[in-house]
Amino acid sequence: MKQPIVFSPAVEIVQKIKAKECSVVELVKAFLEQIKRHNPTINAIYELRKEEDILKEAAQKDAAIANGEALGALHGLPMTIKDSFAVKGMLSSNGDPFLKNNRATEDAALVKRLKDAGVIILGKTNIPLFCIDWQSTNTWNGQTNNPYDLNRVAGGSSGGAAAAVTAGFSTLELGSDAGGSIRVPAHFCGLCGLRPTENALPMRGHLKYPKQPDGNKHIVVAGPLAKNMADLQLMLSVLWNNKDYPLDEHAPVPLDYSSWDNKPLNIAVAKTINDTIVDQEYATIFQDFITKIQNQKHTIHYDYPVYNEAKAYQTCGEILGFENRMNAPQLPLTAWGMYAFIRLKYKDQAWAKSMRAGINLSAVDYAKAIDFKRSFLAIYQRFFEQYDLWITPVCAIEAFQHQRAGIPFMINNQKTPYTKAIGSFTFTTALSGHPILVIPIGRKKNGMPVGIQIHAPKWSDNRLVEIGKAFEKLVEGFKIPELG
Description:
The protein is of the alpha+beta class. It has helices spanning 10-18, 24-42, 51-66, 109-116, 159-166, 183-189, 229-239, 280-294, 309-327, 334-346, 349-359, 363-386, 418-426, 461-472, and strands at residues 45-48, 78-82, 120-125, 137-138, 142-143, 145-146, 149-153, 173-177, 192-195, 221-226, 266-269, 299-302, 389-393, 409-411, 414-416, 436-443, 449-455. The chain folds into two domains: 5-303 and 387-472, Amidase signature (AS) domain (Amidase signature (AS) enzymes); 308-373, no CATH class. The chain is built from 14 helices and 17 strands. An eleven-stranded mixed β-sheet has the order 1-3-2-8-10-9-16-17-13-11-12, with helices on both faces. A two-stranded antiparallel ribbon has the order 4-5. A two-stranded antiparallel ribbon has the order 6-7.
C-alpha cells in the first residue's frame, strides 16, 4: 500500500516540491486533513492557523517555484512549533495558565530561521504546566496522547511536538530540552531527537514573557525532532545557520566543525544511571542494540563518568530556578510557590528545595553554581578523552499510561519514584552541555517504541549526527502508527 505523503521523509518531500512533482497547496491540504481527522483524539496541536491563510502562503510557495526564485532548504514544508517558542501572531503560553491567551509580537530567533528557509507553520503544539513534566497535560489545552496508544503519554515538555510528527501532522518539529524535554518525547514516540551542544543555537524568544528580558540561560537548549536522521540533519543545518544570523551570545562554531571518518569507535556503555532500575524488556532491547554495534567492529566498554549525583542534581535546580526567576515577572512568595508545586506534584523534595534555593540565590551563589557547572563539564571532557561516545537508556521505561504526575512506577515489580525513573537519565546529564542524540532502537511487545541516548563531546554535533545515521541502519526505525 502506498505510504501517505504526511508520513514521507521531509528530505523526500522537499525534493519533490523543488522538482515540481508535488504542489505545496496539495501537500498542505493533506496535512490539514490529517490534523482534522486525528488531532481531536491525539490533541497534539492546540492552535491551528486559519486555513485560508495557510493555503494562501502555500500558493505563494508554489508561485516562487514557478517563477524560478531562490528557494530555501525547507521550502514548502508544513511544520508545527512547540508552544514555548514565540511565533508572531500566535498563542504562546509558555505553559503558564496566566499566559494562555498571550499572543507573541515577534518570532523567536529559530522560528525566523525556519520561516526564512521556507517552512509553512501550521500551528502550535501542546506542553505541560510551566513546561515542567515528562507528559504534556495542562488545564487549558488538555492532555496530549501518544499516537501509538492513546492511553499513554507522548512525553514532555515537547510532547505535543513529538506527537505531531509521529501522527503525520508535521514534517519536523522544534523542541527544547533541560531535563529530557526533547529526549523523552523522542523515546516515547519513536523519533530521532537531538539536544545540541549548549549555546550552539540561540534561545531568544523561547519561554519569553511579555515585557520581560530574554536574558542568557544555561542548561535549556533547542533542537530538532524528526522521523529519521536525514530529516534531523536537514533541519539542524537550518537551525545552525549562525553565519547568516550572527548573535553575540553563542559561539560561531560551524556545524561541519566535526565529522566522522567512518573508523571504528571506542564506546562507553552504561546499562543504567544512578543505579535506577530499568524495565527488563527495554534492557534486553538495549543490550541487543549494543551487540549490533559491537558486530560493526566498534569497541564497547561498560563505563560511566563518576560525579556527585546529588550535588549535580541540586546545581541543576539552582541554576534553572535562578534563571527562570530572572526572566519571569517578580511575584511575592515565588520561591515557596515553586517549592510547593514541585514537592506536592512530583514528590521530589531534593528538586523542590533546589528550585526554591535557586529562586533565592544571591549573585555570588549563582556564580558559584556556574563554577560548579564548569567543573562538572570538566568531568565529562576527561571522560570523552577516553571514549568517542557514551550510550545509555533514555529513561527507565517506555511511554507510560496516563497518570497523575508524581505517582511512582512499578518497574520489574519494584516501586520507583516518578522523577527517579526519568530524571536520573536526563537531568544531570544536561548539566555539562554536551550534545545528546536519541534514536529509536526497537519496540516492546506492547508495540511501544524505545530508544537510546548517544552522548558525545561538546561541539561534535555534526559527527554525532553522522554516527547516528550509521546506527539507524541497524534498526527498523520509524513506524507509521495505526490511527484508525
